[in-house]
Structures are given as structure tokens and as C-alpha cells.
Specification:
The chain is of the alpha/beta class. The chain is built from five helices and five strands. 34% of the residues lie in helices and 24% in strands. The radius of gyration is 24 Å and the shape is elongated.
């Protein structure tokens, strides 16, 4: 049962769309309706950014930055090797784009402790990268125990990625992919938690394949 106290029917807000109003708007200089916005970017800066027509570079050296703590690197030798393979496969896929000359992960020493676009851009510039591809994964993993069969782990992983153009500071492209994978516990696994990490890595690997394909297609688009 739905209860409603003192309900009133509100009249829809009427917005003027007359030609005179539109002409007046077009004649005005582009300004923010919120005064606090100017503390970061001026209205003129925002207008210039929005008017800028971005084209990916004809030749690009790419740096890749994976955000977040990749726990599998410190879990077991097998998981560490698999995690390194996932990174290498992603870098190799990006390099298949005709406009990409080199792909490598941003050295750990250059990764800023504080997350901000400005600091990421500065680190990539020091590395002389034309583009910085930043990605981050988040997973939810569940265990299913069985009495007379091997336990399984199912992981749902979402990976978000964005391209940061180092010269302009623009983020012209962003994408995301969600994949799930079920893995059965292997007798050689240390415990169910290792099985869970394997499921996560497998789902992330599949998501990065999709993301790498989309980024490569974008970089070669003209």
C-alpha cells in the first residue's frame, strides 16, 4: 500500500524556446551560472576547451598507468607471472594500432602518490609520452563451496580506462568493460583465496582485451 500525505500536483516547468530567447543567448559571452566554477577554470578556458577539435596524433608513444593495488603480485609466484602477462598482452594489443610507435608502463618511480590529472600529465611528460592510458579495475568475487566437488569462485570485474593527451591535457576518449569468469579450485592452489584471485585476473584480462580493441580503433580513426 502506498501512502501519500499532503500530495500536490506540481505544474511542469515551462522553458522558453522562442527564437528571440535563443538569439539573445547566442549573443551573450559564454559564462558559468555558478560562481564557484571559476576557481578551477575560467569561463574563457572552458569555452576554448569545448571548442577545440581534437585529433589523435599521427605517431604516438604511449605510457600506461594501472591505478589501484594489484594484490595478486604479492600473493604467489604463479599469480605474479599471470599478472605480468596480462599487462604485457594489453600493451601488445595497443601497439597493434598503426599510429602507435611504442607502448610501456609508466615507471613506478614516476607514479605520483596523489591522484590528479595534472600530476599524471606531468609524470607522462617527463617520460616523454604523447599519450597516457590510465585504467582501474574493481572486482566482486564470490566463493561457492561444494561437498563432493571442487569449490568454485566467480568474479565480476569492471575495468575503466581513459586516454590523457599529454600535450593538451584533454581526455578525448574513455571506455569501460565488465566481464565475469568462474574458476574451479585446483588442487595445487594454496587455498580458495588463490582461486578467487585467478578468477579476478581472468575477468580483468578479458575486459582489457575489449578495452584495448576500442582504444586501438579510436587511435587509428581519422
Amino acid at each position: 500500500m502506498l501512502l501519500c500525505a499532503a500530495c500536490e500536483t506540481a505544474a511542469p516547468v515551462q522553458r522558453s524556446s522562442s527564437p528571440a530567447t535563443q538569439v539573445e543567448y547566442d549573443r551573450q559571452a559564454p559564462i558559468s551560472l555558478f560562481a564557484d566554477d571559476a576557481t578551477v577554470l575560467s569561463d574563457a578556458d572552458i569555452d576554448r576547451i569545448l571548442r577545440f577539435h581534437y585529433v589523435p596524433p599521427a605517431q604516438a608513444r604511449i605510457a600506461v598507468l594501472a591505478l589501484g593495488q594489484e594484490v595478486w603480485f604479492g600473493y604467489s609466484d604463479e599469480l605474479a607471472r599471470t599478472g605480468a602477462d596480462v599487462r604485457s598482452e594489453f600493451a601488445h594489443q595497443l601497439k597493434t594500432a598503426a599510429t602507435v610507435t611504442e607502448v610501456s608502463f609508466l615507471p613506478t618511480l614516476l607514479v605520483p602518490t596523489k591522484r590528479s590529472v595534472g600530476l599524471f600529465r606531468e609524470a607522462a611528460a617527463r617520460y616523454q609520452a604523447d599519450l597516457l592510458i590510465v585504467y582501474q579495475s574493481s572486482c566482486r568475487t564470490y566463493e561457492k563451496s561444494r561437498l563432493f566437488a571442487a569449490s568454485t569462485s566467480k568474479s565480476f570485474c569492471n575495468v575503466e580506462a581513459a586516454i590523457l593527451d599529454v600535450r593538451t591535457g584533454l581526455v578525448p576518449f574513455a571506455t569501460a568493460a565488465t566481464k565475469d569468469l568462474t574458476v574451479s579450485k585446483n588442487p595445487e592452489d594454496l587455498n580458495i583465496y588463490e582461486t578467487m584471485r585467478k578468477a579476478e585476473l581472468g575477468a580483468i584480462r578479458e575486459a582489457l582485451v575489449k578495452i584495448g580493441t576500442e582504444i586501438s580503433a579510436y587511435l587509428t580513426r581519422r
